[in-house]
Amino acid sequence: MQGCLLITRQGNESVLAEVRRSRPGPARRNRGRANASRILLALMLGLGCWTLCPAQLPADVIYLKNGRKIVAEILREDSQQIFISREGGEVAIPRTIVDRIERSPAASAEPTEEAGDAGTERQRDLPLPPPPGEEASASELQVIRDQAIDSAYLRRLDDEVSHDPSPGNLHRLAQAYQEAAIFLTRQGNPEGALDLYRHALRLAPDDLALTLAMAYLLVKQTYYGEAISLLLPLEDKHPKTSAIPLLLGSAYYATEDLNRAVAEWRKSLDLRDDPSLREAVAKAEQEQNVAGSYLEQRSEHFLLRYEGREVEGLVRDLLNTLEVAFRDLSLDLDYIPHETIIVLLYPNQSFRDITRSASWVGALNDGKIRVPVSGLTSMTPELARVLKHELTHSFVRQITVGRCPTWFNEGLAQLEEGATTTGLGTQLARAFVNDRLPTFATLEGSFMGLPDNQVGLAYAKSLAALEYLRDTYGMGEVCRLLKLLPASSSVDSLFQDELRLSYSVFEQEVANYIVKRYGS
Questions:
Q1: How confident is the model at residue 99 (pLDDT cuts 50, 70, 90)?
Q2: Got the DSSP string for 250-291?
Q3: What is the pTM of this model?
């Protein structure tokens, strides 16, 4: 299961205690893939050439900035990471360490996501069709001029359709609004894009491409109920379109309606085979088996599912704790998520079976918050911190359209849960002075590829960065930067424009902040 944000907690100082004991860091992904992937990537970066695909298959060559190269099959990629094949799974390589790529002539022609479309958090926990946009041709349409939407042109199209709803006029309107919506999405304004889609579909309600494009964005933006309402009438009208049940299944899965999710995904597979969708179906069926006897309770913002009457007291406390955390985060981040957030409580073994996580993983957020609770009958301070940390990731995912660098995401989650650098101040300052920390540019992508002895330091440095931003500029500025991330071409350019700091200067400022506080 890709894209999980995993944490484990050991005492009040959270991940910092892990660093102090020189043990692996607290946040990991994927069960046996986590350690194996880190070790494999470390080997690849240290060896002159590492071949990961069978000799008879076409291979891509990834040249690293340190002069080394990796020969492997590229499975997929986004603006932050390149995912390569290894036996039984995949490894993520941060783009910041890649110099160039030579692709196999037989490489897949499937388009990758645009930088402004999803970034780090590609919608990897929900299977989706390819991003919309290939239908509209910028050379034929006049809706985008000088990097802005020509609103007058859209109004003219509206008038034409109002006076003459011919197929040609309707098609031009649908194309133009779709292109304008995609433009807004890539500019970091998906809500504005959804408004355009809604307006266009009132005028051209039967345009399938426009409807699917809106449904795609609704699912990505977690408007699952609206996506379901939009798509359900299309199933009978377009029984051969595999994207309809695919999107419906993902929306149902995200709302914990596993039976309908599996049924819709199977319809999609009958129309078009997809290995990743088959894997999603198998995972959902496993969850069905575990969740068959689960009870559920709801609060204003959460649906909580659990097994056994013995934890009902904990459930009430947990929902209250989540609602308090939701209120705090809404105030801190000036944002209110619009859909119910799913929280699943598991017996420890069920948690391992579903998430395939290692025994030291304390919780997981893959779009749903999953927590093992065996032996717990009441809320503890430690569990409250875990819940707020994971809930922060849910907020960040929606605010940034998934385009938040990992160091910012993890640093903010630690900050919100109440962690501080105090307990590790001296060691952290010494690591800054001795240049023993990975750069922020390196930490934009997954921490999965870092050596074990650097993972804990990566989390500590991430927390230090957010402490510096908060103490220097205030939480209001942190919140503003978070909201600007989707429209920014890079964190470096964002910091240059908003803070007048280059990445290199930001590195030095954070180091100075820690050394000044704790000494070297």
A1: confident
A2: HHHHHTT-HHHHHHHHHHHHHHS--HHHHHHHHHHHHHHHHH
A3: 0.64
